[in-house]
Amino acid sequence: MVLNRRNFLAQSVLRSGVLGCSLAASPLITPVSFAAAPWDHRLVVIILRGGMDGLDVVRPTGDPHFAALRPGLTAADVASGADLDLDGFYRLHPALAPLMPLWRSGDLGVVHAVSTPYRDKRSHFEGQDLLEAGTLNVGAAQDGWLNRMLQCVPGVEGETAFALGQMKVLEGAAPVANWHPKANMRISPQTEQLLVHVMEGDPLFEATLNEAISLSAEATDPFFDPEAKGMSGDMSPRLPQYGPLALAAYAAERLRGDTRIAAFSVNGWDTHARQRERLGRRLSDLAEVILTLQARLGAEVWGKTAVVAMTEFGRTARENGSKGTDHGTGGAMLLAGGAVRGGRVFGAWPGLEEGDLYDRRDLLPTADVRSAAAWILRGIAPLTRADLEAKVFPGLDMGEDPGLLS
């Protein structure tokens, strides 16, 4: 074999694993370029893995059947006024109290009683696959709906979109950059110098090697410190290297530049037992993620940003015997950002009387979560409705514009 730059890289990675991070997440494998996107709005997609209980997050206390379904989960909060009134019908989980200023300013909204087309099996694996693929059926596409969206827009290059971690929603033919907070090349200075020498002058690998070294340098510090990169905001300048806050901080850094789309996940929403404690912790994390994005994007970029937090399915209308809820169907999507028309709960409420429930156990979806996502894409990027319904979300009827963006 001739020892050229590409062969050297391939053999180094495959034989020794010297880069210390997965091939899928390595900037050495994913082409990364620096070019402005053909639109100015930003989009952050957060996948809430595990099936978030939308009925607990945004509580329909105005429904006369709600209290009887959830006596152990919500009765104490309702009685004490710990949860927060939104519009006289819905109340917000108390763990999201830090986001109430966003609600009042119109930067936080909810789309309730939504789901993907997934029904009945209630498998996390299949539900998440369908959520990220954006198709009608499980296994119908190997790529994700955000990547197909990028394929419909001319002028997209590597840094237009960032997948932070393994995100099927951004997998596909369109160029996408990948990063993971644990990415660490773990190579000696001598090896780094050798790599730089071997890649020097190569139009494909020289720039991406420099990017990989930069990302790895950020990850080797015990704390990821975006403030040291000249970023603004009133959040603590030192954030944990791992976890959702690191992802939010890194996404904000990129979105302040040429990046227009970032996607990452927040895990831990499967609340079969002890839901009051577990869901409260996860919602506190989510509130910190959203506030980190707001602070580190700055007022100007935040004003052009839509944050979409979505989950694979909701949970049962009734609490179970383990002080939790089981896998369900209809749920809620959370929206944040200055580009969002917030301060309201969108969606047609189906009711919680037993005959109104899906399969007499779940919140009945009255809208497809893909439709809400499609209207957001339509508002932030140069996309036609025909492309959204045929290519990005095959088989989708978007319906009427719900007015999710300001």
From TrEMBL:
InterPro entries: DUF1501, TAT_signal. Transmembrane segments: none annotated. Pfam families: DUF1501. This is Twin-arginine translocation pathway signal. It comes from Tritonibacter multivorans.
